């Protein structure tokens, strides 16, 4: 029996062609679909050899007499693995999409053939991160400020100081795992014996356990409580910026590292100023005479005070004047953006007799 003939491919066929041929024949001959079980196993055997580069080279050189088990344990040739079982139990009553190239890694992860994955006790005990949103005024961005707020979260148990043990009692090494936080189990199946490594159920991966659990936290080392948090918000902060505060998230279990606190900032809209990056924009109305003759007017600034702004003669409506250094501070910097003032000429809706007469005189003069 030639493997290439079984799959209906040439000896120069690519791996992709071999895979496609196998899938097509497997659909046709699978026992669950009324196919020939013997033929199905022969196809599996052929595919497991030809889909493996090293086994394929050995097969091309020596034929079916090569030692399939010599390349790394018992071969997947039907002698040590029942493909019919794997197929039938893995995807019953479903469309077949099983990729046997990944079979070794799949079963390696499942049965621990590829080596044990060690549990990380620090990760197990670490507290969760917390995110909160804080709203501030635009004026608050001018300088560094502090904000206080309360959070209901896990905090370190004050009775046991976080170790989970009742004061006056000892913390003992776990008898089951000898302090490693992991246990091994040897199991026998139709595939042979295999060893699994997992989290110790006795100590839940921590490697030790209190002689007597704390009466307050019941051995967890932390309790739910309100905690007042104070954070510093730097100058120049903008909406959607996030400040990370290490150690202010939830307390970890039994002295584990606390999570981080992520504070997302939202800056309220201002009734006068519009912020774009670190610059501020505003509109100011002026009269026709101020636009024509020029003037000096007071305008507000973000600090809450007022400054003088000079309007040049012959100013047109929509002209923008720049005032340097009156915007928002650059993030964590002493320098600031600019303030841009757009001038709008105000057209009066009602005129007094004197105003109307004066405008008519100007009109007669060509203005």
From TrEMBL:
<dbReference type="GO" id="GO:0031072">
    <property type="term" value="F:heat shock protein binding"/>
</dbReference>
<feature type="repeat" description="CXXCXGXG motif">
    <location>
        <begin position="200"/>
        <end position="207"/>
    </location>
</feature>
<dbReference type="Pfam" id="PF00226">
    <property type="entry name" value="DnaJ"/>
</dbReference>
<dbReference type="InterPro" id="IPR018253">
    <property type="entry name" value="DnaJ_domain_CS"/>
</dbReference>
<dbReference type="GO" id="GO:0008270">
    <property type="term" value="F:zinc ion binding"/>
</dbReference>
<feature type="binding site">
    <location>
        <position position="160"/>
    </location>
    <ligand>
        <name>Zn(2+) 1</name>
    </ligand>
</feature>
<feature type="binding site">
    <location>
        <position position="157"/>
    </location>
    <ligand>
        <name>Zn(2+) 1</name>
    </ligand>
</feature>
<comment type="similarity">
    <text>Belongs to the DnaJ family.</text>
</comment>
<keyword id="KW-0346">Stress response</keyword>
<feature type="zinc finger region" description="CR-type">
    <location>
        <begin position="144"/>
        <end position="226"/>
    </location>
</feature>
<dbReference type="InterPro" id="IPR008971">
    <property type="entry name" value="HSP40/DnaJ_pept-bd"/>
</dbReference>
<dbReference type="InterPro" id="IPR036410">
    <property type="entry name" value="HSP_DnaJ_Cys-rich_dom_sf"/>
</dbReference>
<feature type="binding site">
    <location>
        <position position="174"/>
    </location>
    <ligand>
        <name>Zn(2+) 2</name>
    </ligand>
</feature>
<feature type="binding site">
    <location>
        <position position="200"/>
    </location>
    <ligand>
        <name>Zn(2+) 2</name>
    </ligand>
</feature>
<feature type="binding site">
    <location>
        <position position="177"/>
    </location>
    <ligand>
        <name>Zn(2+) 2</name>
    </ligand>
</feature>
<feature type="repeat" description="CXXCXGXG motif">
    <location>
        <begin position="174"/>
        <end position="181"/>
    </location>
</feature>
<feature type="domain" description="J">
    <location>
        <begin position="2"/>
        <end position="63"/>
    </location>
</feature>
<dbReference type="GO" id="GO:0005524">
    <property type="term" value="F:ATP binding"/>
</dbReference>
<comment type="function">
    <text>Participates actively in the response to hyperosmotic and heat shock by preventing the aggregation of stress-denatured proteins and by disaggregating proteins, also in an autonomous, DnaK-independent fashion. Unfolded proteins bind initially to DnaJ; upon interaction with the DnaJ-bound protein, DnaK hydrolyzes its bound ATP, resulting in the formation of a stable complex. GrpE releases ADP from DnaK; ATP binding to DnaK triggers the release of the substrate protein, thus completing the reaction cycle.</text>
</comment>
<keyword id="KW-0862">Zinc</keyword>
<keyword id="KW-0963">Cytoplasm</keyword>
<comment type="subunit">
    <text>Homodimer.</text>
</comment>
<dbReference type="InterPro" id="IPR036869">
    <property type="entry name" value="J_dom_sf"/>
</dbReference>
<feature type="binding site">
    <location>
        <position position="203"/>
    </location>
    <ligand>
        <name>Zn(2+) 2</name>
    </ligand>
</feature>
<dbReference type="Pfam" id="PF01556">
    <property type="entry name" value="DnaJ_C"/>
</dbReference>
<dbReference type="InterPro" id="IPR001305">
    <property type="entry name" value="HSP_DnaJ_Cys-rich_dom"/>
</dbReference>
<dbReference type="InterPro" id="IPR012724">
    <property type="entry name" value="DnaJ"/>
</dbReference>
<dbReference type="GO" id="GO:0051082">
    <property type="term" value="F:unfolded protein binding"/>
</dbReference>
<dbReference type="GO" id="GO:0006260">
    <property type="term" value="P:DNA replication"/>
</dbReference>
<feature type="binding site">
    <location>
        <position position="214"/>
    </location>
    <ligand>
        <name>Zn(2+) 1</name>
    </ligand>
</feature>
<keyword id="KW-0143">Chaperone</keyword>
<feature type="binding site">
    <location>
        <position position="217"/>
    </location>
    <ligand>
        <name>Zn(2+) 1</name>
    </ligand>
</feature>
<dbReference type="GO" id="GO:0005737">
    <property type="term" value="C:cytoplasm"/>
</dbReference>
<dbReference type="Pfam" id="PF00684">
    <property type="entry name" value="DnaJ_CXXCXGXG"/>
</dbReference>
<protein>
    <recommendedName>
        <fullName>Chaperone protein DnaJ</fullName>
    </recommendedName>
</protein>
<keyword id="KW-0677">Repeat</keyword>
<dbReference type="GO" id="GO:0042026">
    <property type="term" value="P:protein refolding"/>
</dbReference>
<feature type="repeat" description="CXXCXGXG motif">
    <location>
        <begin position="214"/>
        <end position="221"/>
    </location>
</feature>
<dbReference type="InterPro" id="IPR002939">
    <property type="entry name" value="DnaJ_C"/>
</dbReference>
<keyword id="KW-0863">Zinc-finger</keyword>
<feature type="repeat" description="CXXCXGXG motif">
    <location>
        <begin position="157"/>
        <end position="164"/>
    </location>
</feature>
<keyword id="KW-0479">Metal-binding</keyword>
């Amino acid at each position: 029996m030639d493997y290439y003939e079984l799959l209906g491919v040439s000896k120069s066929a690519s791996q992709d062609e071999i895979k496609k041929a196998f899938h097509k024949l497997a659909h046709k001959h699978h026992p669950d679909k009324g196919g020939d079980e013997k033929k199905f196993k022969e196809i599996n055997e052929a595919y497991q050899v030809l889909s493996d580069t090293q086994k394929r080279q050995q097969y091309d050189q020596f034929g079916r007499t090569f030692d399939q088990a010599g390349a790394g344990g018992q071969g997947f040739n039907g002698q040590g693995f029942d493909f019919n079982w794997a197929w039938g139990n893995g995807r019953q009553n479903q469309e077949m999409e099983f990729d046997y190239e990944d079979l070794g890694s799949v079963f390696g992860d499942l049965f621990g053939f590829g080596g044990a994955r060690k549990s990380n006790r620090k990760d197990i005990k670490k507290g969760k991160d917390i995110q909160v949103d804080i709203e501030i005024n635009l004026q608050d961005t001018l300088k560094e400020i502090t904000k206080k707020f309360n959070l209901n979260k896990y905090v370190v148990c004050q009775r046991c100081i976080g170790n989970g043990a009742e004061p006056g009692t000892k913390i003992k090494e776990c008898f089951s795992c000898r302090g490693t936080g992991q246990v091994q189990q040897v199991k026998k199946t139709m595939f042979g014996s295999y060893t699994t490594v997992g989290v110790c159920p006795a100590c839940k991966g921590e490697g030790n356990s209190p002689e007597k659990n704390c009466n307050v936290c019941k051995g967890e080392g932390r309790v739910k409580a309100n905690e007042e948090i104070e954070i510093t918000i730097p100058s120049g902060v903008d909406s959607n910026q996030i400040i990370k505060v290490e150690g202010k998230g939830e307390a970890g279990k039994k002295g584990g590292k606390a999570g981080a606190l992520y504070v997302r900032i939202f800056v309220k809209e201002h009734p006068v100023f519009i912020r774009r990056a670190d610059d501020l924009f505003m509109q100011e109305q002026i009269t026709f005479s101020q636009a024509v003759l020029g003037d000096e007017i007071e305008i507000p600034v973000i600090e809450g005070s007022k400054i003088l702004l000079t309007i040049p003669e012959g100013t047109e409506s929509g002209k923008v004047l720049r005032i340097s250094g009156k915007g928002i501070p650059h993030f964590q910097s002493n320098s600031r953006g600019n303030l841009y003032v757009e001038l709008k000429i105000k057209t009066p809706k009602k005129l007094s007799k004197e105003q109307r007469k004066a405008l008519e005189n100007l009109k007669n003069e060509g203005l």
